[in-house]
Amino acid sequence: MNEIANAKKTARPTAAPSDTEAPLLEMKGISKGFPGVQALDSVDFDLRRGEVHVLFGENGAGKSTLINVIAGTFPPDNGSFRFEGRDIRGLTPHQARIMGISPVFQEFSLVPDMTIEENLFLGREITTGGVLNSGAMMRRAKEVIEELGFHLDPKKKVRELSRAHQQMTEIAKALMGNVRLLILDEPTASLTEAETGRLFSLIDRLKHENVGIIYVSHRMREIKELADRITVLRDGKLIKTLDAEGVSENELVELMTGRKIDVLFPAINHAPGETMLDVKDLTLANRAVEGVDFFARAGEITGVAGLVGCGKSELVRAIYGLEPIESGHIKVGGEPYLHPAPARSLKHGICYFPSDRVVEGLALSRPIRENASMAALDLAQFARMRVLQRGSERRVIQEIVDKLRLRPPNIERIVANLSGGNRQKVMLARGLTRETKLFLFDEPTVGIDVGAKIEVYELMKQLVENGAAIVLVSSELPEVLHLSKRLYVMHRGRMVAELTGNDINEQAVLSSFFQDENQAETA
Amino acid sequence: MTVRTFGSHAHPETGLERTSRIAASVGLLPILLVLMVAFMAVFEQKFFGVNNLFNVLRSTSFLAIIAAGQMLVLIVGGFDLSVGAVIALTSTVMAKTMAVLSASMPDQTAAIITLGVLAGLGCGVAIGLINGLCVAFLRISPFMVTLGTLSIATGVGLLLTNGIPVYGMPDVFVKGFGRALWFGLPATVYVAVALIAVVWFIQARTKLGRYIYAIGGNLQAATVSGVPATGYLVLTYVMCSVLASITGIMMTARLGSGQATMGGNVMMLQSIAAAVIAGVSLRGGIGRGEMVALGALFLSILTNAMNLLRIDSKMQLVVLGVIVVLAVALDELGKRRQIRD
Amino acid sequence: MTDAARSPAEVTRFFHRAMLIQAILPIALVLMVLGFTIFEPRVLSPQNLLNITIQASYLVIFATAQMIVILTRGFDLSLGNTVSAVSVTSALVMTGMAGAEGESVGSAIFLGILMGIAVGAGIGLFNGFAVAWLRVNPFVATLGSFNIALGIATMASDGRPVFNVPDEFSTLVYSGTIAGIQMPIILAAAVLVFIYFVLNYTVFGRSLYILGGNPRAATVAGLPSRRYLMMAYVLCSLIAVIGALMLTGRTGSGEPNLGGNLTLESIAAAVIGGVSLRGGLGGVQSCILGALFITALSNGMNLTRVDGYVQMIVLGCVIILAIFLDRLRTTRA
Asked: C137: which residues sit within 8 A by CB, 6+ positions away?
C-alpha cells in the first residue's frame, strides 16, 4: 500500500478543483490489430465518474480487447487515451493499477498455490526492508474481505477454492488499492443469485464513491438493472453509445448483431424421427451431473440451457466419452452404449464439438487439412491400412471446406492464423468427414462473428433437415431458445425442466432456476 | 491461464489415492527416513559409527545446498542442468587462484583464501547470469540453455587444468575448515544449516520469496501485478549457481585439491532427485527449503547405505533413477486428486 | 471478427522473413566450412567431405531417433546409455555364441542383433509406458531409464569393453560397401527414407505431429494418443539400436561408454536442424541438416587442431545459439 500512496504522490500534480463534468476516461479512435484480425477499428469510448457504463456485444466484438487496452495489457495501434484529464501513452498493467484502473478479467490473475492473502497483496506487499509484515497484511486482508461482505478465509490456497470464491478473491484484489476505474468482465458468469446480489450492492456503493465502472456483459437482466449508459460494439467497431433509460431488449440485440432477430436465426423444419440418444439416470464420477434423464431424436434440435457450471457441458462430454461415468444407461440409436470413449463414439456416428476450440479441438500449428481430417483417419477415404491417402484426403477436405464457405479456402493454411469463425468451421468440417447421426454442439458460437454465426446456424438447419439429431448446449439464451424444438434446463447438475412448444421462453427457463434455488435454500 | 475449480462433490477416493494423499500431507519423507534408519539398524550397524555418520552429514550438507539452489529454479518453472559443472568450474578456478596467489604472496593467507573464494563464487555468478539472461530475456528453454552452459563450464574447467588436480591451497583452509570439526560436528554442516536457514527465511518471510513462488505459479498474474519478473528470474538462476558454487567450495576444501571432475552429472541428478523427493513440483510454484534438506539427507543416507552394503556405484545410479521416477509419479497421482484438469 | 485482408506487400514480406530464417542454417553451414577451409585447406577435399558424410551418418540416425519423441513434446535422455547397453549386450551374445561349437558366425550375429533389439525395445517400452500411461514427465522418465540403461551396460560388461566382435559383423555395418557406397551411409539413408515415409504417409506419423501440436485435441478426436505416444518412444529406442550396432561394428567391440555424449549431441543436432522443442514441427531434413552441421563443426575443429576442451565450450555455445534460432523460427511474424 505504501507503494501506491507514494506513486500517487509523484504521478499526480496538485489536485485541480474537481470537475465532475469532465469524463474520467476518454478514448478516441482506438484501433488494435492482431495477426489475421482487426480487433478494434477506430472506437470511441468515454466513462464518467460514478457511472456504470456497460460494454455490450457478442463474443469477439472487441470488448476484451478494449478493456485490455484500458488496463494496459497492450497499447493501441492508434488513437488517443486520456485518463483523469491526462494523456496516457505506453501504459503497463502495473502502472494502470497504480493509477487506479482495476480490471477483473474472466481469466483470473491469481497464483493458485498461494493463499488468498498472498494473492491480494501480490505486487503491493507491506514490507520493512524486504521482510514481509505478515501480521499487518493478514489483518488488512480480513478487513477488506469483511467490508465487501464476502466469506473468505485469507489463509486458504486459491487452488482449493470454488470458481465463485476465486472470482470474489479476484474482485477483492481489484479493490485493494485506491480504485478510480473498475472494470468487470462478465463477473456473474459463475456466481449464484445471492452472490450476484452482493456484487450489485457493492457496485452501488462504488458508484456513490464516484468510481467509474465499466461492466462488460451480454446479459440483458444485468444491463437493465445496472447500466447508466450502454456502448454496443460489433466486429471491432463502435455501433452506438446510448443512455440505458428506455432502451428495449430487441433494440440492443439488433444493434449487437446487426440483423433483425428473425434473420439471425433461421427457421428450421424439425421432423422428429427415431430416438437417437436415450440417457437414463446418468451420474458422473465427479457429480457434475446427477441422475439425469435425457433424450434426443433425429431430425430435431434438442437444446440444453443453464448457467455456467450447471453440468450441461459435462453431460454431452460424458456421452461422447470425455468424462468418467459412475452410473446410468446410455443408448445410441436404440443400442446400449457402454463405456463411451471418443474413438468409439465417432464410430457410432456421434460427433462432439468442444466449447474450447483452442484447448481441446485444434492443433494450432498444423494446417486446416490435418485438423479437419483428424477424427476420420480410420476411414478408407483417408487412410488405408494406416497409410495416408493424401490425394484423397486433399480432395475430400477441399470439398467440405468449400461447402462450409471457409474463406480463403486454402486448406494448407495454418489454423493459428484463422479467425474464430473460420476455426469453428474447421471443427465443423470434422463432423462432415464421417457419417454422423448425432451432433453434440457445446457452446458453438462463442467467440465468432455474426456472419459466421449465421452460417453455423444454417449448417445446423441443413443437418437437422437431412435427418441428423442435434444436441445444442449453450449458455446464450437467445440462441438456445430460438433454435431448439425441445429444451432441457439444467441447474447444479440436475435436470430441472423439459420444455416444448410455447413453453420455450426466457421466463420459463429463468423461473426453473429460481424454483430449484428456493428448494435448495429451504431444504 | 484459467484457474480451474474442482467440483464440490468429489468421487470416492481409490485406495492408492488415499495413501498418496495422506503420505503427501504427513510428508513421505520423514516416513522414508525413519524406515531407512530402522533398516540400517537391523542390517548394517556400521552405519552408526561416528566417522560414518560424519561422512553422511558432510555429504548431506553438500547436497542440501546445491539442491536448495536447484529448488529455487524449479519453483520458478525452470531447470538447471549446469549445477554439477559449476561445482567443477568453481573447484578448479578457486584452487588455481589460491595456488597462484600462494606462490606470489605466501604469507597473506587471509587474503589468499578470500580472493580464492571470491573467484569461485564469481564462477557461480557468471554462469548464473548467462543462464538467467538467456532464459529471461532471450526466452530460451532452460533445459537447453543449461545444457549448453554445462558443456561450456565443463570445458573451461578442463581447459584450465588439463584434467589434472590442482594443489596448493592454504592448509588452514583445508584443515581448518574443509576437514575440520567445529564443536564436534563437521564444519561444513554449520555452513549448510546456516544457508538452509537463510533460504527458509527468504521463502517464508520476504518479498523475494513470494515473488519467486508467484513467478513460478502464474507468470502472467505476477507480471500484471507489477512483479518485475525478468529481473527476479535472472536473480533466481544466479542464486542457484552461487549455491552450487558454495557447494563446490566446500567440497574442494574437504578434498584438498581442485578437480575438474568434481560434482558433475551425478551431483546434478542428485540435486534434482533431492528436490523432487521433497515435493518440489516440476511445474513450478511449489517447494520448501527445509523439505529439500530432508530430501538431501535421505539421499545421502541411501547412498551411504548402498556403499556399506557394497552395492555397485552404477547400480546405485539405477536405484536413484527409479526412486526419482516413483517419487514424481506418486506426486502426480496425489495432485490429480486436487486439480480437475 | 473477420480475417483482416493483408496487403500483397505484407504477405511477401512475411514469406521473405520466414524463408530467411529457414535458410539461416544451410547458409551458416556453408560459411562455416568455407571458414575452416581458410585455415586448413584439407577441409574441402573430397576425402574429407566423404569423411564428414560418413561421420554424420551416425549422428543423423540418433538425431532422427530423438526427433520422433521431440515431435511429441518429449525427449529421450536415456539415448546415450541405451546405445551403450545395446552395444554391450549384443556384443556379448555375438562373441559368446561365435566361440561356441557348431555355431555359425551368421547365427551368432543374428542373435546378437536380436539381443540388441530386445534391449532397446525394453528401454523404449519403459520410457513409453512411463510417459504415456503413468503420465510422468519425459525428463524424469528418461532420467530413470538413463540410469537403468547405464546399470545394464556396466553390469553386463563389468565395466570393460567386450572384445572380438566378429569381423563379419563389422563388415556388415561398417566397412562393407554396396555399389561403392559405405554401409553407414546406406543404413542412414535407409533409416531416413523409412522415417520420412512413416511421418508423412502413416496415421501414426501424422498423429505424432498432432500430439505435439495439441495432445488434448488428439484425444478428443479419437486418436489412440497413449498408444501412439508409447510407440514413439519405442521407435526412438529401436532407431537408436541401429546406430548402436553400427558404432559397435566400427569399434569392433561392445563399449559400455559408447553412448557418451550422444544424448546431448542428438538433441542438439535435431534442434539446430529445425525440430522444435515445443513439438509438432520438424522432419528428416532437419535431422540431416543438424547432423551435418555438428559433424562439420567437429571435423573442422579437429582439422584446425582446436583443443578438445575448447571444443566442448564451442558445442555449448552452439547449442544455445541453436535454441535461440529455434525460438526465432517459431515466433510468428
From this structure: B282, B328, C131
